[in-house]
Design goal:
- This protein is mainly β and 166 residues long.
- The chain is built from two helices and twelve strands.
- Strands 1-11-12 form a three-stranded antiparallel β-sheet.
- Strand 6 and strand 7 (85-91) form a beta hairpin.
- The longest helix is centred in the first third of the chain and has 19 residues, at 2-20.
- Mean pLDDT is 83; it is low at 4-17.
């Protein structure tokens, strides 16, 4: 009888857990806030003013990719030994979705390897991509949630599109 009750408990618990696991039909908000341990990695972009932001924190504003929320940038510093910010300005870090960038195309080689030629190379930021969602293992190497040792095989892949700004 105890074995039967234990089996019934295990089966009930497994079905409840499976019912709460996000699926490809779940919204990104449901996946992000899921109580189950799922992980996924969105691309990261280098925006203006030295800001790096993941795809879930940016939106499309005309021809630009920009942060959804304003961030603080220091515009006035104190002088001296213990330099600190005296005045902030709120900004939207951004980057053109299409453009050119100055890129090294030839290296000198050898011990003091350095760039010997730069060229303007065109780029275009992808705003829609397929993201793999994984069930997370407990633990993992180096505390990196996305490390291969921290995840099982993908549960599913789901399209993510960077939204238009409000």
């Amino acid at each position: 009888m105890k074995k039967l009750l234990l089996l019934l408990f295990v089966l009930t618990s497994a079905s409840v857990f499976a019912g709460n696991m996000p699926t490809v039909d779940s919204s990104w908000e449901e996946i992000r806030t899921s109580r189950n341990r799922v992980i996924f990695e969105l691309p990261q972009y280098n925006l203006s003013h030295g800001w790096y932001m993941r795809a879930g924190s940016v939106c499309i504003d005309g021809e630009d990719l920009r942060s959804i929320k304003k961030v603080q940038k220091c515009v006035r510093w104190s002088g001296g030994r213990n330099e600190r910010c005296l005045e902030f300005k709120e900004i939207y870090p951004s980057k053109k979705i299409e453009g050119t960038r100055n890129t090294c195309t030839r290296w000198s080689g050898g011990r003091n390897d350095r760039c010997t030629r730069y060229e303007e190379i065109p780029y275009k930021i992808t705003t829609e991509f397929n993201v793999k969602v994984y069930r997370r293992r407990s633990g993992g190497r180096d505390g990196d949630d996305y490390d291969a040792s921290s995840r099982f095989k993908p549960l599913f892949g789901k399209m993510f599109s960077i939204p238009q700004c409000d």
